[in-house]
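Record 1 of the preview.
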Amino acid sequence: MITPRLPPGRQLAVANAGISGNTVSRQPNPYDPTGRCCGPPVPERLEYDALDLAGARHLILLEGTNDLGGGDHAPPAPASRVIGAMKEIVERAHARGVKIVGATLMPMCAAADSGTEANRRAVNEFIRTGGVFDGVADFDAVVRDPADPTRIREAYRSDCYHPNAAGHAALGKSLDLGLFGLDRPRVERAA
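->
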């Protein structure tokens, strides 16, 4: 049974504009140079996929894994490129009056001593402590395996990059509703 998390009388609409294989920076797509599989990078679709949505007040940014991982058509991006793209997105969201929550990047099965893992940790440190985001959803802390922090724990893992249904449920339960103003009672407006 699913237990509702919203306070009585409160509602929240959610639009999911996530695209598998997408990137947060303007680097070539690491999986498909044609752009047909994974859509344009976030900076190119930010307005029409998020900021232009009627009533949009908050944005959760969970991007960067594909940039850091690289692929056959683009090398792995350094943390600085991902952080720079995140800063641009936050600035653009704030210019539109939209609050933005940074979601930490989940484990990618990269070797603990690899550049990819070092870059992932650097991006997560920026998200957690950089002071740029209006709030943080620490998805890494929710799903990482305590015995091997480079992997998603077995109970939550679909593959090296993606949580399964139980992992997604854990991520949802971990969200602090206060980030979206849902921890306060609703104020009725006079007609």
